[in-house]
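From the methods appendix. Each design record in this collection lists the tokenized structure first, followed by the designed amino acid sequence. Records were kept in a plain field format so they could be parsed without special tools. The example shown here is representative of the layout used throughout.

RECORD:
FOLD TOKENS (588 positions):
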């Protein structure tokens, strides 16, 4: 079998060629629409004949027959096909073709090359996490970090050069109040132990001490203006705020397996906004106009933004979130030569990004700048099981650090109960991987557009679509290899394997070959849960196989092919989980 006929895309190509070879009139208009089928019907289904035949008043079943009969020999050798219903062509991989696939896709690199080179040669900038400085990350910051990192890994796996950019909120009026508070009440000892906690306290004090209309507020404003004008003392303080914030953020990122290439926050664009104002006003007709003193962009073609403009410079002349984001889009295009830009934030920023992207499209077209693909990846809110915002008992927001600690502690209790004999350091290590993985995966396993209900019991459960379930499947396969005193990487299993025979073997193999399609779906839609769902189903098919067929049997050829299935399941689960940002274990 041709090594890449596992892909719906390859079947699609073969069907188009077959339509031409069959001499169909207007064959170029035939779109096969191949997709992964319900396993009851086969592996792939081509739906396109119906539309094609109907439009030409032909019999769809006859057309499907004609096309299928013109398929090249190598496709017919690999697939059985049936014409179903109104001309659907259902394809099922033959056991020999499945075995050939398993032989061929033996390493993560091989899976990568077989996956899809959808983004080969492209540069993608992914802007995620991007918290505001001088504040701790709280539970609301979890989703952007976790979803963003998974998207980075998916894009990289499909060939992109990925630039991870942490667009810190490190500029704005809050720094006047923070400096005001800092200069009066900073506690050096507290700064040495937990700087960011202390900065939060100082901001709260500064904010409380500067009510509207008070002389204190005037003083805080003067601190802000001094900072903006480059006053050495205030700039040094501000720099310190950024440094301690980043150091604290990095502790969280380390636990989540995240490493940014750049931390180009809002302040980085301070000297880049003048150009934006100029370019938006110098086009004919000008894209931006002055309205009540502010510089704004209307989008007359849009139902809401024709009356509700995008405010790109405030009436007092100050820049804002829109100005820096416009400058950011330009910088990413010019400096990083981005082919794609992804920004990951919660859905409440949807209007901002819609207006931003509309503006960027018109502005880049007016200036003949190359336009990258622009994606705002949104996600729903995190709530407790009661549907309300997640809070501590005392009603405060939950800090991300505390949340990750609790995940590890809870996982440690579970691991200790299940494996009381393991040495404590090993139990701690397992708990770290399971606890953090559970938090990451609880988020990634759901469609990101939905609100996400945070439930310790669900995410730590050993069954269901959870990290512990998947990590356990991985560990269990490792234990089979330990028992067999064999390595999953040993090519001998493939070499000695006999043809797949049992229903469970074939079902598992049919699931394994769908990995590239699941990967493609997750990457094309920037929705990691499609990959999660695939891994969950794969683990289920593996478990059925394991219950039905003993792996370590005496007949060498049967044992070899079952070890081959174990090895490929392991490879696929590990590759998939790593793509989602999780670590895996060999023992649990
Ligand atoms: N700092 C912002 C926030 O906390 C997110 C920034 C997202 N990135 C961007 N380019 N606007 O909501």
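DESIGN:
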């Amino acid at each position: 079998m041709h090594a890449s006929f596992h892909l719906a895309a390859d079947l699609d190509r073969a069907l188009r060629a077959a339509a031409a070879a069959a001499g169909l009139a207007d064959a170029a208009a035939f779109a096969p629409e191949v997709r992964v089928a319900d396993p009851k019907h086969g592996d792939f289904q081509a739906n396109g004949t119906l539309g094609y035949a109907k439009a030409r008043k032909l019999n769809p079943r006859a057309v499907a027959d004609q096309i299928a009969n013109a398929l090249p020999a190598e496709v017919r050798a690999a697939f059985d096909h049936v014409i179903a219903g109104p001309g659907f062509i259902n394809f099922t991989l033959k056991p020999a073709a499945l075995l050939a696939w398993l032989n061929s896709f033996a390493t993560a690199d091989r899976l990568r090359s077989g996956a899809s080179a959808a983004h080969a040669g492209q540069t993608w900038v992914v802007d995620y996490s991007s918290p505001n400085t001088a504040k701790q990350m709280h539970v609301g910051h979890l989703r952007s970090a976790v979803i963003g990192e998974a998207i980075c890994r998916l894009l990289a796996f499909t060939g992109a050069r990925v630039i991870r950019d942490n667009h810190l909120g490190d500029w704005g009026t809050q720094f006047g109040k923070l400096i005001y508070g800092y200069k009066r009440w900073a506690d050096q000892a507290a700064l040495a132990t937990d700087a960011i906690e202390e900065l939060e306290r100082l901001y709260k004090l500064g904010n409380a001490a500067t009510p509207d209309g008070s002389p204190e507020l005037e003083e805080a404003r003067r601190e802000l203006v001094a900072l903006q004008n480059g006053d050495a003392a205030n700039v040094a303080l501000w720099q310190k705020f950024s440094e301690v914030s980043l150091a604290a953020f990095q502790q969280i990122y380390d636990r989540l397996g995240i490493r940014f290439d750049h931390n180009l926050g809002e302040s980085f664009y301070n000297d880049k906004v003048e150009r934006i104002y100029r370019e938006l006003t110098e086009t004919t007709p000008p894209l931006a106009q002055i309205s009540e003193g502010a510089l704004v962009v209307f989008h007359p073609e849009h139902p809401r933004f024709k009356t509700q403009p995008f405010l790109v410079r405030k009436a007092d002349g100050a820049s804002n979130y829109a100005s820096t984001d416009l400058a950011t889009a330009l910088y990413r295009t010019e400096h990083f030569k981005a082919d794609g830009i992804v920004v990951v934030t919660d859905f409440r920023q949807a209007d901002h990004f819609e207006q931003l992207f509309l503006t960027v499209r018109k502005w880049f077209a007016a200036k003949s700048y190359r336009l990258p693909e622009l994606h705002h990846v949104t996600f729903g809110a995190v709530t407790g099981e009661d549907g309300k915002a997640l809070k501590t008992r005392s009603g405060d927001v939950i800090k991300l650090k505390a949340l990750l600690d609790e995940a590890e502690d809870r996982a440690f209790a579970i691991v200790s109960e299940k494996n009381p004999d393991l040495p404590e350091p090993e139990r701690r290590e397992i708990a770290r991987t399971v606890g953090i993985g559970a938090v990451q995966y609880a988020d990634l396993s759901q469609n990101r557009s939905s609100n996400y209900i945070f439930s310790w019991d669900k995410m730590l459960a050993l069954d269901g679509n959870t990290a512990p379930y998947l990590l356990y499947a991985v560990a269990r396969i490792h234990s089979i290899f330990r028992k067999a005193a064999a390595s999953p990487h040993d090519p001998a299993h493939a070499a000695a394997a006999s043809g797949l025979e049992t229903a469970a073997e074939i079902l598992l193999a049919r699931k394994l070959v769908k990995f590239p399609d699941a990967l493609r779906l997750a990457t094309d839609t920037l929705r990691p849960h499609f990959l999660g769902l695939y891994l969950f189903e794969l683990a289920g098919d593996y478990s059925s196989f394991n219950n039905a067929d003993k792996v370590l049997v005496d007949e060498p050829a049967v044992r070899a092919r079952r070890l081959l299935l174990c090895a490929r399941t392991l490879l696929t689960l590990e590759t998939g989980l790593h793509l989602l940002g999780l670590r895996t274990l060999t023992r649990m």
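APPENDIX NOTE: Residues 1-5 have pLDDT under 50 and may be disordered.
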